[in-house]
Amino acid sequence: VASRDLVASARGGDATALALLLEPLWEPAYRLAFSMLREREAAEDAVQEAALKALQNVRKLRSDTESLRPWFFTIVANQCRSTRRSRWWGVLRLAELPYSKSSDNTLSEERVDLANAMRQLPVEQRLAIALRYYLDLPMEEVAEVLGISLAAAKSRVRRALMAMAPALNAEGEMG
Amino acid sequence: MNEDQAGRQVRSVFENELEPPLAGFDARMRTVLERAPARRPGLLGRWNWQLRSSFS
């Protein structure tokens, strides 16, 4: 929970106060960015850009803000969307190959199927399941970060799970 | 399969894919914020580009 004094200082343009408020969010923000971009340098850059955008927009925060997490994750997600739309992103991604059961020995055979199913999800569905299951956000906060209603967020997560169902089921049967 | 089981499997794939950030990432982000010329948005883009260049 953010201290009201720190939020007030940050809203007044105090970058050190904002840095203190964001300190616990750097690591999960990076994980969020990596889940969308799957490239270390791009994920680091996305969080850095998001931090600067947060600084530019911190005055818009409500004075009674209790957690910066949904606000900052929204900025990070938007930055990742922007990165993925960039001219070079498509060129870089062309070189990406699916997981191979024979060559990737860090994943079990069943997890390879699931990893490939996750890679084939539309990016907004992948973002939804990353927020829900990787970052453990409550569904209300998932909806807030995605900028959609709670019902729409639940539906998006459900559609992602249905799309991955064959891979999930196969793994579940393995116990 | 229930949602908790599915969620655990999804999480394990995300964790397996993750490449950690370079050492000092948190400190670098803090520095980015504290040194940013936030009150002068016109300068921010150029400053950020210079900063990223210096890290690479």
Descriptive account of the structure:
The complex is a heterodimer of chains A (175) and B (56). Chain A is an all-alpha fold. Helix content of chain A is 71%, strand content 0%. Chain A contains eleven helices and no strands. Chain A has helices spanning 4-11, 15-22, 26-37, 40-57, 69-85, 87-93, 109-119, 123-134, 139-146, 150-163, 165-173. Helix content of chain B is 73%, strand content 0%. The longest helix of chain B is centred in the N-terminal third of the chain and has 15 residues, at 3-17. Classes of the chains: A mainly alpha (175), B mainly alpha (56). Chain A binds chain B through residues 13, 15-16, 18-19, 22-23, 26-27, 30-31, 34-35, 38, 40, 43-45, 47-49, 51-52, 55-56, 106-107, 111, 114-115, 118, 129-130, 132-134, 161, 164, 168-169, 171-172, and chain B through 1, 3, 5-22, 25-26, 28-30, 32-34, 36, 38-39, 41, 44, 48, 52.
Explain the layout of strands and helices.
The complex is a heterodimer of chains A (175) and B (56).
Chain A: H1 4-11, H2 15-22, H3 26-37, H4 40-57, H5 69-85, H6 87-93, H7 109-119, H8 123-134, H9 139-146, H10 150-163, H11 165-173
Chain B: H1 3-17, H2 25-35, H3 41-55
Give short descriptive properties of this protein.
heterodimer; A: 175 residues; mainly alpha; 11 helices; disordered C terminus; B: 56 residues; elongated
